[in-house]
Amino acid sequence: MNWNLFVTELVAGITHGSVYALIALGYSMVYGILKLLNFAHGDIYMVGAFIGFGVITVFGGPLALTVNVVLLLSLMFICAMLGGGLTGVMIERFAYRRLRNAPRIAPLITALGVSFFLENGAQLVLGAQFRSYDTFSWKNNPIALNGFTLPAQARISYAQVIVVVGTIVLMIALTLFVQRTQTGKAMRATSFDREAASMMGIDVDRVIVVTFFIGSALAGAAGVFNCIAYQQVWPYMGFQAGLFAFTAAVVGGIGNLPGAVLGGLLIGLAEAFATGYISSTFQQAIVFAILIGVMLARPSGLLGRAAVQKV
Amino acid sequence: MPDVDRNPAAPDTPQIGVDEWVATHDTRREGAQGRLGRIRRELGRVPTPGFYLAFGVAAALLPAITNNDYIVRVGFDTLLYMLLALGLNITVGYAGLLDLGYVAFYGFGAYGYAMLASPKFGLHWDTLAIIPVVTIATALLGFLVALPSRRLLGDYLAILTLFFGQLFVTVYQNGNRISFLGLTRGYDLTGGPNGIPNIDNVDILGLRVSSVKGYFYLALVMFLLVLAVVYLIDSSRTGRAWKSLREDPLAAELMGIPVNRQKLIAFSLGAAIAGMTGTLFAALNTAVFTADFDVPSLIIVYAILILGGAGSLGGVIIGALVVNVSLEVLRTPGHATYIFYVALAAGLVAFVRPWRWLAIVAGGTIAFGYVVHAIVSAAWPNGVAGSPAIGGPLGSFLDSWQLYPANPRTIGNVAFVALVFVCMLLTLLHGWVRWVVLIPTLYLASFTWENRLVMEPSITRLILIGVILIVLMNLRPQGLRGAARVEIV
């Protein structure tokens, strides 16, 4: 067995899976509360990636940085998360809010329109070309740990560590927020039963706005993470990432936050191993097969509870 | 018509009897007055198939009155979009299943025709044999795709089909080196990025169709046949079952309708129509590539369906005409500019009430433009250095009214983003403030159009389609021809 390849793909899968997990969290949160597939969520990830790109360009580009790297990274995250979050809130306010009680197909088609608008608007304003994000000199440096030697060619880079650690930090923060704060409690209540929650005095509109903001901010952060590890931004990057992230959310059990993370990692690993062992053109087919398999065997997802339909 | 206060001062207090429905009740019962009302009543007596027949006759005359192959070609494309929208109308409009992989079936049909009638595999089947084979194969494929999500919520079907559509593109894009787990030699099935070229023309029992006009008539006949079938299904037991499960699947099931089976039938039938349409597409274009079956085509078909009104057959015709002809016109900047201003003016006339505000907004916008133009040309001559893309009276008016910076790209991009934000702001404003803000917004819209959008027709088309979907779903979800649905809470 070729351990080098195995470890390389494992690390790549976890890295990519973390990004999917972050996007899937936003999908899952919005779905949990509004029962809406927000197709535009993947494009918010694109917006976040471009904001990160903008920040790094303002500070002189990756090769001639004018500020400290740590400061730059934090600035990228703050701007991308704020920008992503605000984009999400605006989409909710101007495209989805009027349709909250419309037949279910109406907001879905609107979401499709928003996604299409964002992609092509970005293409108009920013151009269709791929832009290379950053090539920090330290990015691909392998990590040497004392007392633990990795196989010769299986390398873990700083960028991958940043992505995984950053994702874990954000997830812990999200879990604390949802479990421990008043707003988090209101979110859980709203997702459980929106009508009953509003009767209990919860300001449902506010909860929905907060949900969109947090979910979209996570997508924005995912955009920066992805680009630190994979170095490219382009206007249509959100489409496939959104699709895979949504699959991750469905696989984990939609509306279930730990499920979204589990699903994200699973999809990331499946994609990485498919690329490594079979062919990169098959990754979509493999992920699709996982989606169908989960739908057939466990329609409510790996961690989801079976939905009871209320009359 | 009695005055209706559209924005009651206190929205939270119940306003009994104050809404448009109540206020216009008497007028509605009598119907419109005067000559217009009589025409409308007379038209209401014509049975619906009469209109379809009239459309068929009118369409059949198109190639007779013009010798321009380009116009006939646009007509052919419009008919294809009508066919596609008809199929999607079954899945989305009647059965309420969101099928986001719809154009994959279209592509499957097109590739099916290409494989059976081209030098690719040396097969040259008769078209009369290909069409049923491809249609049935597409129906089976649709059946298989819908199968895993038959018991689940509609949302799962949406994501599954969206994924399927992407997978279709990827597989056909890479289908030129298919090997089984690396064990066999790469086998070329779909031509990969090169597509399948040199496709045969339609060949019906030795009768070859090679002119655009011939294809137009072929598409027209196919469209009218499918329309007749769908019209009959619409009022049949199956059609009623679909509409009932769209409104409420649970109630439909309790009424004894086999919900899962009906969903699968609706989905496969929609897919079959798309596959059948694909054969014509492949035959006229003589080459197929995956790019034609990607998300933009999907969104265009959805825009057609939504604009016309999901669930309405007449809406399909109107929607396809409006969307495809406008998209075609947008290709040439000169025509596109006229259409843009006409649409802007029509929008103002339709939405700005009362009339005096319409006059104020229109006059204000023109005055605003002259003032801005005067200030900018005095302070920053570079801002008026360019000139409009069109000539004629409109061009010379624009030249003295609108700003044309020497290097419009960057400022045009900024203007586009600003326009998006201002339009969102407009939806938040009420009363006279909205009309006042509308004046600079119109000027900004015209500026963005002249300096940026008109330069990138291919992207502008797609942006407009996205905007149509968002705005229409928010303002008029039933589309132009659909019946408004009353949501039962």
Description:
- The complex is a heterodimer of chains A (311) and B (489).
- Chain A is mostly helical and 311 residues long.
- Chain A has a domain at 17-138 and 170-243.
- Chain A has helices at 3-34, 41-58, 69-96, 105-126, 158-180, 182-192, 194-199, 204-230, 237-252, 257-278, 283-297, and strands at 131-132, 232-233.
- Chain A has a two-stranded antiparallel sheet.
- In chain A, helix 5 packs antiparallel against helix 8.
- Chain B has 489 residues and is an all-alpha fold.
- Chain B folds into 3 domains: 1-45, no CATH class; 50-325, ABC transporter involved in vitamin B12 uptake, BtuC, CATH 1.10.3470; 336-451, no CATH class.
- Chain B contains 20 helices and 4 strands.
- Chain B has a two-stranded antiparallel ribbon.
- In chain B, helix 10 (237-247) packs across helix 12, helix 16 (355-379) packs across helix 19 and helix 18 (408-428) runs antiparallel to helix 19 (431-451).
- The radius of gyration of chain B is 26 Å and the shape is globular.
- Chain B starts with 19 loop residues before the first helix and ends in a 14-residue tail after the last helix.
- The relative contact order of chain B is 0.11.
- Chains A and B meet through helix 3, helix 4, helix 9 and helix 11 of A and helix 8, helix 13, helix 18 and helix 20 of B.
